[in-house]
Amino acid sequence: MKFVTEITTTNDAFVGDPEEVVRVLKQAAKKAVRLYAAPVGNIPRETTLPLHDSNGNTVGSVLLLEG
């Protein structure tokens, strides 16, 4: 199993707030744990979940690749 996380930091939520990256990474970690803990067969072989900044904008994703 492989987890891939991508975050784009070019919007206003990241300007002057270095903690925003940490907040989004924590969100990615929580989503990865939920995906990993899901019973086998309950999630597709490839699953992508969105990541959001503190303004609610989609800024990236966490991807689970099974294999």
What does this entry look like structurally?
There is one protein chain. The protein is of the alpha+beta class and 67 residues long. It has one domain (2-65). It contains one helix and three strands; from the N terminus they run βαββ. It has one helix at residues 19-37; strands at 2-7, 46-52, 58-65. A three-stranded antiparallel β-sheet has the order 1-3-2, covered by helices on one side. A hairpin with a 5-residue loop joins strand 2 and strand 3. It starts with a strand and ends with a strand. The relative contact order is 0.34.
Question: Judging from the principal axes of the Cα atoms, what is the shape?
Answer: elongated
Summarize the main sheet: 3 strands, antiparallel
Question: What is the average of the pLDDT values?
Answer: 87
Number of helices: 1
